Amino acid sequence: MKNTIYTIVLLFICLLVSCSPDRKQNKYELTELYVNLYDKNIDFYELSDEVQEFEFIRLETTDNCLIGHIEKILLENDVYYILDNIYQAIYCFSSSGKHIATLNRFGPGPDEYLEINDFVVENENIWICDNRTQRVVCYDKNQNRIDWIDLKKNDFWVEHMVYQDGYIYMVNNWIGIKPKNYQILIYDLKNKKTSLEKPFSPLQHVIYRGMNNQIALIDSLCMVTFSYCDTIFQIRNETIVPKYKYRFSERMIDVPLVISDNPPIEDPNIIKGLMNIYQTPNSIILKFSDNGKIRMAIFDKENTSGKIYSGFKIADLGNFHLIDLHFLPNSLISIFDSVDFKMYFAYLIDENFKRQHDKEKIKEEVSKIKDDDNPLLFRFILKNNSKL
Question: What is the pTM of this model?
Answer without folding.
Answer: 0.85
